[in-house]
């Protein structure tokens, strides 16, 4: 499990190298998503659609935190990759350590606020009076584990870069397995309901966070944590480095913010048109969205160290070839996922709720519409990751803003007026499709400019 391989980023066959990272990264990512989905399955059968709706109301807040962790993880791993390519091991270690310290501080302050005012936080997230007690319970029992969640978000990038993608995978798998066992125990034999689901998730996340941090403290090959000096000059340099990492990884934060926006605005629109049952139906779709997101993330993260390293050494031919492999993989995964969701909505919804319930029928009718966006969703994530890996912050950020805010929010507002309930499900597909068109236009316009030079 602690296997670490010497990796030749500059000469090894790109397809073999990408595959070596993609398979364990994908399995690890899906295991992370499984932690949330398992909650939903047990909550759906143990509590009902109201429980799913309550958890779904909490998820946007949790995704914002995860996005901050991914931003620091992407930024630190890109910077560390380039430092390693140039033989600056100490600088790479310092950047990783600074990223972990940053996410720890950023998480602790708002966590204390949420724990102090859970009722007010629940109202801010859009909880109805009926769902308020369950939303409050979930927040109180989950929020204490957020710091560990942030450690996982940063550390898994670094562990893969250090040459141990299988250990990164096991951090996620062990966490998911613990969550399965504890979800069943807390929700069914003990009857703790939504509170039990939150507590089970917290325990599993703490376990994964401890595993990941232990690797960086004691077992890492190159990227072991390094003490940070406390002088004023060192603090200033650390803040500068953290700011640079956040700039590089900002589109990763926007990626999570996209999911948070999708869920938050979708919850409001479904509540307006279909009430609590509509939020419960949309909640089932939102349990699956992290799986789709993680497939795109796995493609981007598997390509990132190869692209960043070769960009650092100036080998642009390998950069372009890696981008092509990543894009083909993303499109293939997108078509596969879309076919599964469009072809078997009753089976997928039935994992969470009895298909005869009102919420389940709404979800089964809406899933085929929702699924049309998955191929664009995954492809966009891979393209944004490509530009991140090249430290091209501006296009990556613009594309992330397009899919997450500029196009998504108007789609949610306008499409239900024109198309009814189907329009709510089609908001995400439309915004992702238009983002893909913009990315293609940007790519080909740059190629034309380069040919003219």
Automatic annotation (TrEMBL):
<dbReference type="InterPro" id="IPR002528">
    <property type="entry name" value="MATE_fam"/>
</dbReference>
<dbReference type="GO" id="GO:0015297">
    <property type="term" value="F:antiporter activity"/>
</dbReference>
<feature type="transmembrane region" description="Helical">
    <location>
        <begin position="278"/>
        <end position="300"/>
    </location>
</feature>
<feature type="transmembrane region" description="Helical">
    <location>
        <begin position="167"/>
        <end position="188"/>
    </location>
</feature>
<feature type="transmembrane region" description="Helical">
    <location>
        <begin position="138"/>
        <end position="160"/>
    </location>
</feature>
<feature type="transmembrane region" description="Helical">
    <location>
        <begin position="54"/>
        <end position="79"/>
    </location>
</feature>
<feature type="transmembrane region" description="Helical">
    <location>
        <begin position="364"/>
        <end position="387"/>
    </location>
</feature>
<keyword id="KW-0472">Membrane</keyword>
<dbReference type="InterPro" id="IPR051327">
    <property type="entry name" value="MATE_MepA_subfamily"/>
</dbReference>
<comment type="similarity">
    <text>Belongs to the multi antimicrobial extrusion (MATE) (TC 2.A.66.1) family. MepA subfamily.</text>
</comment>
<feature type="transmembrane region" description="Helical">
    <location>
        <begin position="399"/>
        <end position="418"/>
    </location>
</feature>
<keyword id="KW-0813">Transport</keyword>
<dbReference type="GO" id="GO:0042910">
    <property type="term" value="F:xenobiotic transmembrane transporter activity"/>
</dbReference>
<dbReference type="InterPro" id="IPR048279">
    <property type="entry name" value="MdtK-like"/>
</dbReference>
<protein>
    <recommendedName>
        <fullName>Multidrug export protein MepA</fullName>
    </recommendedName>
</protein>
<dbReference type="GO" id="GO:0046677">
    <property type="term" value="P:response to antibiotic"/>
</dbReference>
<keyword id="KW-0812">Transmembrane</keyword>
<dbReference type="Pfam" id="PF01554">
    <property type="entry name" value="MatE"/>
</dbReference>
<feature type="transmembrane region" description="Helical">
    <location>
        <begin position="194"/>
        <end position="220"/>
    </location>
</feature>
<keyword id="KW-1133">Transmembrane helix</keyword>
<feature type="transmembrane region" description="Helical">
    <location>
        <begin position="241"/>
        <end position="266"/>
    </location>
</feature>
<keyword id="KW-1003">Cell membrane</keyword>
<feature type="transmembrane region" description="Helical">
    <location>
        <begin position="99"/>
        <end position="118"/>
    </location>
</feature>
<dbReference type="InterPro" id="IPR045070">
    <property type="entry name" value="MATE_MepA-like"/>
</dbReference>
<keyword id="KW-0046">Antibiotic resistance</keyword>
<feature type="transmembrane region" description="Helical">
    <location>
        <begin position="424"/>
        <end position="444"/>
    </location>
</feature>
<feature type="transmembrane region" description="Helical">
    <location>
        <begin position="21"/>
        <end position="42"/>
    </location>
</feature>
<dbReference type="GO" id="GO:0005886">
    <property type="term" value="C:plasma membrane"/>
</dbReference>
<feature type="transmembrane region" description="Helical">
    <location>
        <begin position="325"/>
        <end position="344"/>
    </location>
</feature>
